[in-house]
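Supplementary Note 3. Input sequence used for the single-chain structure prediction.
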Amino acid sequence: MDWLDGILEKIGARFCKMPLKKTLWYYMALAILTTLLAYALTFTILEGWRTVIVDSYEITYQQMVSESGIITEVKMTEVSENGNVILNILQIVSLAVLIGYPVIAVCVTSHLYYQKKLKGPLERMVEEAEYIGRDDLSLPCQWESEDEMGKACEAMEKMRRRLAENQKDTWELMEQQRSLNAAFAHDMRTPLTVMQGYTELLLRFYPQGKISQEKMTETLEALDRQVKRMKNFAETMRDINTLDEREVKKERHLFSELEEKVSQSARGMEQLGEIAIEVRRKEKNVGAEQGYFDEELMLEVLENLLANALRYAKKKVEVQIETSREQVCLFVRDDGKGFSEEELYQATKPYYTDPAGKEEGMHWGIGLTICKMLCKKHGGDLTLSNSVDGGAIVCAAFWTA
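The predicted structure, written as discrete structure tokens, is reproduced below.
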């Protein structure tokens, strides 16, 4: 009977593709045809039963009637009382069939139409609506049908995907805003740290008259530079929506001036603790005295790296500036325990925390992430390594051509 199964399968597939209105007409036509056939079969059977009952329960009477002296024999036939009861029942059945078959046909047709064409997709859409109501967009709303219900499910599936995309965009926007806020807070804290160091230096030596006029002027200039840097940074962050929008403003600068400003930042941060910071410069190209770079961006990266290094250093932090015609590299080395194997690959990710160092506060927050992003925007990169003598080394490279 494989051929029959194949035919039925084709008919079912065709019905799935039919529009709802056309399918309903087919079901109604089938119901009418089935009802007419049932009428014909039922009334044929009832008529046969009537014939049998009449033949079985027939009673014949013979009477002699005299009419004007002529004797005539009259034959009379009637059905018995039991036969009349059965015939009345058959009559009631006929009336019941006239009303009952259409009602049954409508009920069966409606049930089949609902089961085959409406129930499945409606239940799927209701379930999808419940999921969406719970902000759960993981359930796909798919229904393999080419009729209106299939198209309705397809439309709801498109809506679900669009909602999922909007939700993803919202999450990304919130994450970008969170990163922007964190970057703003982080990078505002670094110049504040330098300013705090210089302020403590003044408070410690100025009342006792142990600071020269030249040192006082140098300290005030360093404080003024940090204030201007904070103001410029605040204006920049006010005008951007994400960290990626931050512009790199390259200008011609002398490497000697960069070294002096790095030293000023180092001296300011050095005042906050007992960690010594040593700054030196190494020229890779003789005669390369200046480069084309964003000085403020470089100093921001350097001060972030210094802040991290001071947290983990034991006694000393070394800063080496390597300059060439094409590149400036800032090396920051501390004498702490160095990076773990996992940190070498994960520390530049946002809000990374080393599981092994949680109790010791070994977390890198967003500082290294910002530094890496700024280095890349300047055409360079940020790399992490460990010194052979112990301690961590972070190299920030910037393209200056």
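The first strand starts at residue 58 and ends at 67. Residues 356-364 have pLDDT under 50 and may be disordered.
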